[in-house]
Write a structure and sequence with these properties.
Elements: E1 2-11, E2 14-24, E3 27-29, E4 37-44, E5 47-52, H1 73-84, H2 89-106, E6 108-115, H3 131-143, E7 146-153, H4 175-186, E8 193-195, E9 197-199, H5 207-214, E10 224-228, H6 232-242, H7 246-253, E11 260-264, H8 270-279, E12 282-285, H9 287-292, H10 300-305, E13 309-312, H11 322-337, H12 351-367, E14 382-385, H13 400-405, E15 413-418, E16 421-425, E17 428-429, H14 432-448
Parallel strand pairs: 1-4, 5-6, 6-7, 7-8, 7-9, 9-10, 10-11, 11-12, 12-13
Antiparallel strand pairs: 1-2, 2-3, 4-14, 14-15, 15-16, 16-17
Helix pairs in contact: 2-3, 2-14
Keywords: Hydrolase, Metal-binding, Zinc
InterPro entries: Amidohydro-rel, HutF, Metal-dep_hydrolase_composite, Metal_Hydrolase, Metallo-dep_hydrolases
Pfam families: Amidohydro_1
C-alpha cells in the first residue's frame, strides 16, 4: 500500500484540494487520512490515446513533399504502404517502444493500437502468426504504458469486394484465421493489456465477415473499433454500392453501442450526427492527423450538444501530444464557425476542462479499461504537472487546464504513473535513452535499405 497526496487533484466533478490517493496492487483504493507522500500541486488522470498505428511514427515527415498536384489521403497512403512493407517484428518493437516513451512523457497512459501490419512483406504468415502483435505487446510492457491491442480484420480493397492490392496483402486475414489470432492474444490479458477487435473499414470488411466477427462471442464485452467516413470518396462509394452513407449503414446493420469506437467519422449528415451520439459509441477524433491528411472537420458542436461521447488519438503520430490534439480539436471548430470557445458544456464554460474531461471518459470507454479517473477501483494511472513551469505561474484551478492546453508547446508533464508504477520522473522516461538509441539504429538501417 502506498499513499500520496496532491494539492489539487482532478476528480470527475472537477478540482478538489488536499486529496489523498491510496494505491494497492496497481489500483486506487478508498483512502484514509494518514501520512502521505507529496505528489505536487496539480495531479490529473492520464489521458487514453484511442487510436494509434505505431509503425507510422517512423515515417513522420516523409510524406510532406508534393508528389501530385492533387495530393490527398489516397496518395499519402501509397507512401505509407511502401514504408510498411519494410518493417518486421524487431523493427516494429523498436518503433513502438520509442513512440510509447513519447506518449508517456506527454501524459498518455493507455494506447489503443489499431494493428493491421500482420504478416511478412510477401503476405506469408510468420512462424508465429501473432509475431507482429507480440512485438507491440513487448513494446508496451518494456515502456510501461497500458495497451488495448486491436488486431484488425482487413479483407478487401473496396466496397465492390476487389482483392487486396499487392502492398495490402500482408494486412489480410481469412475470417477464421483472424478469430484464431484474437483468441490467441486474449490469453495474454492482464491489468495493463486488453485485447479488443478492429474492423479496418466498411470498404475492407465485407458484410458476411462483419457478421461472423460480431457473432463469434469474442466481442461480447470487448472494445470494437472501426475507421469510418474519413474521406468524401469513401462516403460516395458507400452511397453508390450500399445506397447509404457509411455511418448510416453501420448503425442500421450492426449493434453499435458503448463497446464501439468509430474512428474519424468526419463526414456525417445531420441525421448521422444525432444517431451516432444517441448510440453511446465513441467518436474517435485525431485532429492532427486529420489535418495532416486533409480529411475535413468533425461536426463537434452538434455532436456534443446531442450528448455524444468523444476521445482523442494521435493516429499517424505526426504529433504525440494530447494537448495538441485537444487544441486543434477546438481550433478546427473556430476556423469553421469563425467564433471562439466552441467546446463547452452546461457544467463548464472552460474549453480545456470540457475537452479534458470528455476525452478522459471517452478514451477510457474506447480502451475497455477502468481508467480515466482517480477514483477508488480505477487503475492507478496519473500525471503530475510541473508547477514550476512559467505557463502555470499564478494560475488557479479556474484557468489551469485552459492554460495547459492553450499556452504553447513546452511539455508541462513532470511525472507519470501507470498501474501504480512510475514510468516518467522529472519529464524523462525511466529507460528513454536506451530505447531512443535502439530506435535511431533501426531508422538508420531502414534508410539504408
Amino acid at each position: 500500500m502506498t499513499t500520496y497526496r496532491g494539492d489539487e487533484i482532478w476528480l470527475p466533478q472537477g478540482w478538489e484540494s488536499e486529496q489523498v490517493l491510496q494505491i494497492r496492487d496497481g489500483h486506487f483504493v478508498a483512502a484514509a487520512q494518514q501520512p502521505a507522500r507529496h505528489l505536487g500541486r496539480w495531479v490529473l488522470p492520464g489521458m487514453p490515446n484511442l487510436h494509434s498505428h505505431a509503425f507510422q511514427r517512423a515515417m513522420a515527415g516523409l510524406a510532406e513533399r508534393q508528389t501530385n498536384p492533387e495530393d490527398s489521403f489516397w496518395t499519402w497512403r501509397e507512401t505509407m504502404y511502401a514504408f510498411a512493407g519494410r518493417i518486421g517484428p524487431d523493427q516494429l518493437k523498436a518503433i513502438a517502444a520509442q513512440l510509447y516513451v513519447e506518449m508517456l512523457e506527454a501524459g498518455y497512459t493507455q494506447v489503443c493500437e489499431f494493428h493491421y501490419l500482420h504478416h511478412q512483406p510477401d503476405a506469408q504468415p510468420y512462424a508465429d502468426a501473432a509475431a507482429m502483435s507480440l512485438a507491440l505487446v513487448e513494446a508496451a510492457r518494456e515502456t510501461g504504458i497500458g495497451l488495448t491491442l486491436l488486431p484488425t480484420l482487413y479483407q478487401t480493397g473496396g466496397f465492390d469486394g476487389r482483392p487486396l492490392a499487392e502492398r495490402q496483402r500482408r494486412f489480410g486475414h481469412a475470417t477464421e484465421a483472424y478469430l484464431a489470432l484474437v483468441q490467441q492474444l486474449r490469453s495474454l490479458e492482464d491489468s495493463t493489456l486488453r485485447i479488443g477487435v478492429a474492423l479496418h473499414s466498411l470498404r475492407a470488411v465485407p458484410q458476411a465477415a462483419l457478421a461472423a466477427v460480431l457473432d463469434s462471442g469474442l466481442v461480447d464485452a470487448a472494445p470494437i473499433h472501426i475507421h469510418i467516413a474519413e474521406q468524401i470518396g469513401e462516403v460516395q462509394d458507400c452511397l453508390a454500392l450500399r445506397n447509404a452513407r457509411p455511418v448510416e449503414w453501420l448503425l442500421a446493420n450492426a449493434p453499435v453501442d458503448a463497446r464501439w469506437t468509430l474512428v474519424h467519422a468526419t463526414h456525417l449528415s445531420d441525421e448521422e450526427t444525432i444517431a451516432l451520439a444517441h448510440s453511446g459509441a465513441v467518436a474517435g477524433l485525431c485532429p492532427t492527423t486529420e489535418a495532416n491528411l486533409g480529411d475535413g472537420l468533425f461536426p463537434l458542436k452538434a455532436y456534443l450538444d446531442a450528448g455524444g461521447v468523444i476521445g482523442i488519438g494521435s493516429d499517424s503520430h505526426i504529433s504525440v501530444s494530447p494537448i495538441e490534439e485537444l487544441r486543434w480539436l477546438e481550433y478546427g471548430q473556430r476556423l469553421l464557425t469563425r467564433h471562439r470557445n466552441i467546446a463547452v458544456s452546461e457544467s463548464s464554460n472552460s474549453v480545456g476542462e470540457t475537452l479534458w474531461g470528455d476525452c478522459l471518459f471517452g478514451g477510457a470507454q474506447a480502451s475497455g479499461v477502468d481508467i480515466g479517473s482517480l477514483d477508488a477501483g480505477a487503475r492507478a494511472d496519473l500525471v503530475v504537472l510541473d508547477d514550476s513551469a512559467p505557463q502555470l505561474a499564478a494560475r488557479g484551478r479556474e484557468h489551469l487546464l485552459d492554460s495547459w492546453v492553450f499556452s504553447g508547446n513546452r511539455n508541462l508533464v513532470k511525472d507519470v504513473m501507470v498501474a501504480g508504477q512510475w514510468c516518467v520522473r522529472d519529464g524523462q522516461h525511466r529507460d528513454g535513452e536506451r530505447i531512443a538509441a535502439r530506435y535511431a539504429q533501426v531508422l538508420r538501417a531502414l534508410a539504408a535499405d
